[in-house]
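Sequence in, structure out. Go.
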Amino acid sequence: MKVRFRFVKLGKIRWTGHRDVARMWERGLRRAQLPVVYTGGFTPRPKVSFGLALPTGHESVAEYLDVEFATADLDVVSLPARMSAALPAGLDVTAAVAIDGPIDSLQESVTSCEWELEAVGAPPDEVAALVERALSADSLVITRERKGVSVVDDVRPAILSVRVIGPPPCIAEGYVDHSPGAMVVAELAVHPRSLRPAELLTALSLPHSGGLREGHVRRTYQWIQRDGARREPLPLGATNAPHAEVRAS
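Output:
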């Protein structure tokens, strides 16, 4: 059987990279003594498939992965608690559901991500004006890195929605900053190439002499758009756990 998990990445563990998180999950599955299916070959690996990589330093309450198990009798209801106990502080599983039949990979099926980010460098009214200008533009051309090479891209099609929701809170650990800023909620496309929050701020900053920089960033949703409908990667009826808080290190 295959199970899809939703988990959060909060607190200090945001500074660990995607590969480190994958290794933490592999160790956690062994610690929880779950019957994971392994690949064949000289170096067997657990059959675990992650979704879109989260940039290092960003938090998330909407991370996903698929795990293949060697039994169809697994108690899926208990999996969020079992895996949360086996993972480091800051990684907590909030839902799990058994997947019946073939499904597209998370990286193929997710079409956009929603982010909550702090835009540092201008007060909310100025950031709102930059957002309005960007959304009304036909194109927004920026230079960004692609496999170590600088490329010029029009990122306007990847900006699906942006709105300013107010001034940033000054309580996020490690992000206390006396510079002016604004909290922004944005939905950004991931195909044909993901637009990162930092690249969004670069696009918004084009006419702004000082530029905008990232403060606190959190991924809040991943969306699948299909046949005119939008849904999250876990289907309705997923086993939900209480929304996780950061556990003490």
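Check: The radius of gyration is 19 Å. The mean pLDDT is 88.
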